[in-house]
Specification:
Layout (H helix, E strand, L loop, with lengths): L1 H21 L3 H22 L2 H25 L7
Helix pairs in contact: 1-2, 2-3
């Protein structure tokens, strides 16, 4: 039963990665990369690495996500072309 949960989490991880690479909106890409980070943390919890999963959530989804969203909002949305 444990392998089924890990397989499901890995499938969501793979879908989030592909969607994050294919989406054209930068904010949507950051959100899907945060989903990727949370799914990575969920896989780490299922493997028993709680401390590594906590670090992944705090750094990967928390700090990097917030800094990426701030960077997107500080840049202009229009190109100079």
């Amino acid at each position: 039963m444990q392998w089924l949960i890990e397989f499901f989490l890995f499938f969501i991880l793979l879908v989030a990665a592909l969607v994050g690479l294919k989406v054209r909106n930068l904010l949507a890409a950051v959100v899907t990369m945060n989903v990727f980070s949370f799914m990575t943390a969920a896989i780490l919890v299922s493997l028993g690495a709680i401390d590594v999963a906590f670090t992944e959530v705090v750094v990967g989804a928390g700090a990097v996500g917030v800094f990426s969203i701030i960077a997107i909002h500080l840049t202009s949305m229009r190109t100079r072309d």
